[in-house]
Amino acid sequence: MDRLPYDVQLALARQLTVRDVVRLCATCKKGQALMRDRSMWHHMLSRLLLHFPQPQIAMRLANMEVEEMKMWVIHSARLDRLWHQIDYQPRVTRDYHCDKTVEHVKLVAGGNWLVIVLRDGSLQLHELGAPAPAVTLAQSLTDDESVFYLSSRLSLTNEHEDLIILQMGVRYNQCNIYVYHIAVVDPVPAFLRVGKISVTGSVWCCASGGQLLVYGLESGTGDMILHVCPLGPQHADNAGPAVSMNIGPWSADEDFTISVLSDSQVMLAYHGGISIYEIPPISASAPGRGQPRIRSVQPLWSTTCDIGEGIYRISPFTGSSSAGAPVHPLVIAGTNALHVLRVFPDSRVEYREVTYPLIAGAEIGYIGLGAVGQRRAIWDCTEARNGSMFIYFQTYSLPRTILDLGADRAAFDAEELGPEGRLGSFSVRVEPEEHLVSVCLEEATGRVCLLLNNITTGARRISVIDVV
């Protein structure tokens, strides 16, 4: 290798996996030059971001220093190796005691900032390790109001990475839905409110994507109505829905979640299946002109499957503006399998189930609170604590085959994971009275955030776990 011209060495190194590059540089006399070569690390990080979008990194790539590029590439490779190890020990766990009024916590893309939602509706942006929040956005709630729902969507294409939706109960059978973007490209994230909708009735579920907010509202006669509201500075608060779709009778026992796939497609995931609906075109003059006519609609695609509590374990995704395949599939971690969907702009849907990788005769067991990313997933597998001092987590390296990487597949060690991926595990020590409230995964860093509640004292604790 040392006898080859440097440009040939560089070209060969670009074809290798990260693990092989590091091994080569450790054994080759000219390896240190390769380790310092910006073009090689730029190539490897660009290839990584092509298949696993991380906008907060991609938007800085042109001006990123070599050492930071190298850090992200090697860090990602280490995560890929460790995530499916059995009973591994995370590198570090940091605990932050927080106010009893903390209702929700969420890691912002990049893993260095936390969104904290308080019981009174206030929002905080808190840098990990900082003594006080950098940003506090107060809400003026009355004694009759409370925050009872939080949804967060990771965008893989925009500089506003996380989308937070707060739903607040209001007297007289009303609620307010606030929609915020969190800009994370700048050194200090910032909240940007992009819409507010006041709704009469009890909203079952709501979500947003792009410039749309969609929420489900029971009709009063047993049907479920999906209301679609445009968002953005050109639309006034409380303008009301522009489109209302009656999807038919809905059982009061059937919870569901909404995913806005594009400005023309919305997905419902419920315990017994998945349905995708087409959103009718929205007229620019429609909002604010009274309630729209409610249209009866049928799903353009649906399937019956065992989603279970997987309705709360749905991956981020990207759409496509062309007739080609979406950049990345949408993945749901169901009761017994992954449910993988690619939804095309022309309404074609590719769907498959990937069973979890179990040894013969084994069962997946309990799947509790968790999160699903583009290539990794995690869930609580501790069905009954019974005084145990530990919470046990199952980690899952998703199979690369769901990405259809083709010729580039070998670069991401698809053969190591196999067609079903691989399972790993680790545990976290807690107090006997502490119970898990929520789990959040920031996939780029492999950072996991837990919100814990002491059922005896009411004290709450945030635990941040660095796997690598």
From TrEMBL:
Stretches assigned to the F-box domain: 1-44
Highest taxon of the lineage: Eukaryota
Designated name of the protein: F-box domain-containing protein
Taxonomic placement: Eukaryota, Fungi, Dikarya, Basidiomycota, Agaricomycotina
